[in-house]
Amino acid sequence: MPIFALKMLFGDSARFYGILLGLAFSTLLISQQASIFVGLMSRTFGFVTDTPQPDLWIVDPAQRFLDDNKPLRSTSVQRVRSTEGIEWAVPLFKGLLVVNLPDGKRQMTQVIGIDDASLIAGPPFMLEGSLTDLRKPDAIIVDERATRREFKMNLPPEGGDPRPLRVGDTLELNERRAEVVGICKATQTFQSQPVIYTTYNRATQYAPRERRMVTMILAGLTPGANASEVIATVEQRTGLLSYTGEEFAEKTVGYWMRETGIPINFGTAILLGFFVGVAVAGQMFYNFVLDNLKYFGAMKAMGASRGTLLGMVFLQAATIAILGFGIGIGMTSVFGLTVPGERLAFRMTWQIPLIAAAAVTIICTASAAVGMWRVLRLDPADVFKG
């Protein structure tokens, strides 16, 4: 009977390929949109994942997400350092500054100023140069993407064809000279501005002078310290809030989920993929069962049990579900590997294929259940009428 059930399925090639295409497209739409959504949300806290050194991220209580900068008093750094359970604490500058290129072009840039002594929160991967080169005069490190996009030298000082920015070139930040001493690779941010790393003191010189220049404080716990107790102590002593890296990332994602229309837009596309599967694949499979009722009736008249007939329908539904899901998730994977990640956020986590599989299972189970109901109510005598 299983062989006969598969022959029935594959024999109706037009309907078989129609169902397969419907399920594959539904899987593709669900998994692709979910992967782009996760990739986009991951960019909102990319700097946190690039900076694994601190145990605590200490910020102003009014700061709602990572890039919602609320500068702190410089004295807050010393107060955090003197807190029991804190092994080290360093200031961090993070702000948007205008960079002037040699060809006269101006570019808004995210400048990150890291601790001069420890260089904690430096770029995660160096492609050229060394992190310690930041201690040289006027030194900056530039993200690799910006060297060939926003900071591309259309009119190189030495003349010739346009070329990417490279080590040894100079830029201008707030009418101050900045020399490129390294090229790094950092996670692309949600706002997609180019990223420049330099030391904290130099960053505060590049930025317009303000009374408060510390964007946030990064701190490490002493071995064996209780994180919850230290967080409560820091809040009591300084009035600032402390988050672990995970908590700060969750807070940032939560803000973008609540305050923007991104979840609704992507959720609509994902639901559309599900309804496409119901409307196309589910309807076509139900019609396939209806068209084959005469065969089920003949087998029932020859003594096939209800369990056997239901098993045949279930096998057909499971086969088409597995094939459609496999093709759809394969197309999504190919899409993610071929589309440049710089322009399109794409991140397929292990939960996304499970969500797509659950959607395909619901579509096929619902259509199979309706078909099974027709098979159970089938009277063998109806097969031989007319």
The helicity comes to 40-55%
Shape, per Cα inertia axes: elongated
**Mind telling me the C-alpha Rg?**
30 Å
> Going across the major beta sheet, what is the strand order?
2-3-8-5-7-6
Number of strands: 10
The biggest sheet, with number of strands, parallel, antiparallel or mixed sense and barrel status, is: 6 strands, mixed, barrel
The SS-based structural class is alpha+beta
Give the count of structural domains.
Answer: 2
Uncertain spans? none
Distinctive features:
alpha+beta, 13 helices, 10 strands, 386 residues, elongated
Describe the 3D structure.
By secondary structure, this protein is of the alpha+beta class. The chain has 2 domains: 165 residues, no CATH class; 188 residues, no CATH class. Helix content is 50%, strand content 17%. The chain contains 13 helices and 10 strands. A 6-stranded mixed beta barrel has the order 2-3-8-5-7-6. Helix 1 packs across helix 11, helix 2 packs across helix 11 and helix 2 packs antiparallel against helix 12. The longest helix is centred in the C-terminal third of the chain and has 33 residues. It starts with a helix and ends with a helix. The mean pLDDT is 86.
Short description:
By secondary structure, the chain is of the alpha+beta class. It has 13 helices and 10 strands.
Secondary structure layout plus pairing:
Blueprint: H1 2-11, H2 13-44, H3 46-49, E1 56-59, H4 75-81, E2 86-100, E3 106-114, E4 125-128, E5 139-143, H5 144-148, E6 170-173, E7 176-185, E8 195-199, H6 200-206, E9 216-221, H7 227-238, E10 241-243, H8 245-259, H9 262-291, H10 293-301, H11 306-338, H12 351-376, H13 380-383
Parallel strand pairs: 3-8, 5-7
Antiparallel strand pairs: 1-9, 1-10, 2-3, 2-6, 2-9, 4-7, 5-8, 6-7
